[in-house]
Amino acid sequence: MPRPHERLNSLSASALLLVSLTACTTDSAMGPAPEPQPQPEPVVTTTMLQIDFNYVEVIKDCDGIEGDGDFHFRVRALPSWANAVTVHNRSHTLGDGDRTAALGRSTLTAAANTGQQVTVELTASERDKPLIGATYNDSRMNNATRTAAHSYRDGAWSGQGPRTISLGSGSCQVRLHYTVNQIR
Ligand SMILES: [Ca+2]
Ligand SMILES: [Ca+2]
User: Fold this and answer.
1) For the segment 121-170, what is each residue's pLDDT rounded down to a tens digit?
2) N or C: which end of the chain has fewer CB within 10 A?
3) Residue 105: inside a domain, yes or no?
4) CATH number for 104
């Protein structure tokens, strides 16, 4: 024999069930079911990142008293959701303290999912020519590469603002200057 309060709970549950069933019955008695409405397109939220590749600066030209350095710079943006973008891929003759012109701008749009990433990559070489024989890359700047990653998390991109990527050391050094801005 259930105790009084248990019995009351049981009655309440039955009453709720009854109300629920009654509601269903009433709805279907109101007439034919309404036409199914077309489903709205799912909202795709996107984010937009703008990267200005400002210039590559030659800090030390890898040639010293022999003259200006004979550089080749490649700059790429590598989005995790799309193909790599080659921003710049050219040779330059530059001495200590010289810099390239502006390299360009990449505007990248992605689904706003945490984990999206853009890697900025600088690759540089400096050519030397012996008195006799073929040119070769200076061993201190021989397709040197370095990257910096920017990732999207909870609505914001990491590493916004002015950034740099440096290659080399001592008398053979270059540096990419770029700026990261989240547009959306
Ligand atoms: Ca050199
Ligand atoms: Ca050289």
Assistant:
1) 999 999 999 999 999 999 999 999 999 999 999 999 999 999 999 999 99
2) N
3) yes
4) 2.60.40
Q: How far is the CA of 94 from the centre of ligand 2 (A)?
A: 10
Across the range 30-38, mean pLDDT stands at: 77
- Kindly list the protein residues that place their beta carbon closer than 5 angstroms to ligand 2, a single-atom ion: 63, 70, 128
Query: Would you say residue 154 lies in a domain?
Result: yes
Residues 6+ apart with CB under 8 A from 26: none
Q: Do the domain assignments include residue 107?
A: yes
What is the residue range of 134's domain?
46-176
Q: How many angstroms separate the CA atoms of 136 and 181, rounded?
A: 38
H-type helices in the chain, by residue range?
Answer: 4-29
Rounded to the nearest whole angstrom, what is the distance from the C-alpha of residue 36 to the centroid of ligand 2? 73
* Residue 62 Cα to ligand 1 middle (Å): 4
Name the pLDDT band for 29 (thresholds 50, 70, 90). low
- Rounded Cα distance between 113 and 54, Å, is 28
Q: How far is the CA of 129 from the centre of ligand 2 (A)?
A: 7
Q: Is 1 part of any domain?
A: no
pLDDT over 70 (residue 7): no
Report pLDDT for 139.
98
If one counts the domains in the chain, the total is 1
